[in-house]
Amino acid sequence: MNRLRNRLREWHLLKRASAPYVRDASVGPLLVLPGVLDPVATRVGEWLAQEMARVVKPDERWVDMGCGTGVVGLAMASAGADVICADIDQRCVANASANAALHRTPLTAVHSNLYSDVPEPNALHGVVYNAPFWPGATRSPNGGLRPFGTAMYAGPHFEAIRRYRVESDRLGVPRVLLALSEDGPDHAGAMSAFGPLLVVRRGRVGRERVVLLEATSA
Prior knowledge:
This protein is an alpha/beta fold. The protein contains seven helices and nine strands; from the N terminus they run H-E-E-H-E-H-E-H-E-E-H-H-E-H-E-E.
């Protein structure tokens, strides 16, 4: 049932993502560019934006990893944090920059494979990742990138989440947060890939259960 529901949701998002549109979000009007995942339609991003506005403190330096439209980064920046929006998809970097301009909110958007091009990663106070939580390859069998591939698919064994944790630990980032849907097809597998953790907050958006996790030492 989860697999069918996910496929139907993906089809609906693809149909809508063929042209830019603006939708209402907790941060205000939010531009969604073609090929970029809608954080309100997919629920977790919009919920996470509201939660992170309460987590960050003014002048702290945070990364919105896998930023998509930049909705989470906008919420953190509006709360006074110094924010870097990072994404491996150049369309998402452009989308986050456009939304920052739309809201006249200062933040930095960078094209980065995790921390590869994040400036001064050793000076961060924290990072948050609205992670892809579907197990599966980001590319189709013919080698092309699947629609919303890096935003939805974490690899057959949640490699994207594992790499995020390993790189964050290597850099010594003080706070490492991860948002997931508890209704994902293998929620236990995604949590296991993240490693030792504590639950910061659980919530529900419509029928979907969502959770914010924080890395802890083993």
